[in-house]
């Protein structure tokens, strides 16, 4: 008897709880917003790598080359806040065949170039002054936050438009948003080096055009749950 009463009590509570829960009509949709931007600046990681048998000489040679690089960058009239050295290292290396040690010194300079018209001049000068490794070039926009905001707004507009399309045939309306999940992605193009056309050089030299920077694709993706009215 007690067991039967317990079961009836549980059933009563379950039914009561179920009656309290109201089903809220809603629709779940995805939206995407895209903004394409032409980069207006670039971050360059350039390295001097020096090898030799004497650690002191290798380090000294590497330092002298980096000093020349920094002097050249200064002559390019870049803001001192836009370049800095990093990742300085001096490592021994052992040649098992020759059974002798050698040394490898590296220094990297990071440069924020805000005027892409100076790109070719800067890169040529870096190599002339001793840079023998370009580790990375990333093209960016100085107005990235503004374009990301535009992409998010476009994504939300597309999500709402989708929801309205779906419910328009049902005689319902799209109400307020219940949940929003956002996942934005930004693609930074790598440099594309254009093939240099062979030409006979006369007294007048043609300007170099070795780089096509491409576009930055700023994409915002959202998942939205709307209440149906």
TrEMBL record:
Keyword ATP-binding found: no
Task: Give the record's keywords alphabetically.
Answer: Signal
> Per its UniProt entry, which superkingdom is the organism in?
Bacteria
On whether NADP is a keyword of this UniProt record, the answer is no
Q: Which GO terms describe its biological process?
A: DNA damage response
Protein name, as recorded:
DUF541 domain-containing protein
Tell me the leader sequence span. 1-18
